[in-house]
Design brief:
By secondary structure, the protein is α+β, with helices and mostly antiparallel strands. 56% of the residues lie in helices and 14% in strands.
Length: 310
């Protein structure tokens, strides 16, 4: 065997340069490990692989967080308001205004501004709703009797002669969504009446407004959608620039009285029954809309004692 062949079959020690048998773990001349370089390379690879794993994990987390945020329009005390829920409500209210004022209300440059204002109002309304439901839950008002919701649903069906399929077409809401709206409305109404006003309806609106303002100040509110302000046509007094126009929470006792007086006024005027009354507190005034077959046929203002036409 030549010298070159013999050295090719030896493992050269990285420390002293002497040749050793290939199967040897340690150099017979200096005693150092023969596989030092290989081990060093492996040690260098491990931190690199670990860094790659961390990058993928962190990157995946941020992608997941971004994807989650993109499906929300806001949060109230950590609880999200979904884009889907927001869009459904915008579409429903949008159709309501189109039936009342015509398709052109959301067309063109002015229409776009109107739609943005509507979105701002609805987002504000949903934030208020979240706050009220959260506070209601803390006070033990987290569910409504199933029998009560079915009773309200049955009354609506009988009043307007609607089937389950008619709700989506005529009211712009599915039967399931309507039941959920009734459930939330029942919880909020009972919470305000029993826990906030504590059965005392005298100066109820003032008491509720003060309580809600303080509660809202303490809430952590995040909104991820920004809409350029516009204006949605409403009652004539708002169009005159009185500074109102945004829906605000309303004391249930006042709402009931406003509905009762508005329906009484309408029935005396038309000798007709079966209409629905919808009450909205715009800040500048409390408005009651009389609705038949999903269309507003008369709008009234309520001053706490009586109603009059707008």
């Amino acid at each position: 065997m030549s010298i070159d062949q013999e050295s090719a079959e030896l493992m050269i020690c990285p420390s002293c340069g002497e040749g050793n048998e290939k199967k040897s773990e340690f150099c017979i001349y200096c005693g150092n490990p023969l596989r030092k370089r290989r081990g060093t390379q492996t040690q260098k690879i491990y931190p690199f692989l670990l860094m790659l794993i961390i990058i993928f994990i962190v990157g995946g987390f941020f992608f997941w967080s971004w994807n989650l945020e993109s499906k929300l329009v806001g949060r109230v005390n950590g609880e999200g308001i979904s884009q889907k829920e927001f869009s459904k409500r915008v579409e429903r209210i949008k159709k309501f205004y189109e039936r009342r004022y015509g398709q052109g209300i959301f067309s063109g440059k002015t229409g776009k501004a109107n739609l943005n204002q509507l979105k701002n109002d609805i987002l504000e309304e949903m934030v208020a709703e979240k706050i009220l439901l959260q506070e209601a839950k803390k006070a033990g008002y987290s569910s409504a009797p199933e029998g009560e919701i079915e009773k309200q649903l049955k009354a609506i069906k009988e009043k307007y002669g609607l089937s389950d399929n008619d709700f989506k077409e005529k009211m712009g809401i599915s039967i399931g969504d309507l039941k959920e709206e009734l459930r939330k409305g029942w919880i909020i109404s009972n919470f305000i009446e029993k826990a906030v006003l504590k059965g005392n309806s005298q100066n109820g609106q003032v008491t509720f407004t003060q309580w809600f303002s303080k509660t809202k100040e303490k809430a952590r509110i995040e909104t991820y959608e920004k809409f350029k302000p516009g204006y949605v046509e409403r009652a004539s007094c708002c169009n005159m620039g009185c500074g109102g126009g945004k829906a605000q929470p309303l004391d249930p006792e006042i709402e009931r009285d406003a509905k009762s007086k508005a329906l009484e006024y309408y029935e005396k005027k038309t000798q007709k029954k079966g209409a629905e009354a919808r009450v909205t507190n715009y800040g500048c005034h409390i408005q009651v809309d009389i609705v038949e077959d999903g269309k507003v046929i008369l709008s009234l203002t309520y001053n706490g004692r009586e109603v009059q036409e707008i």
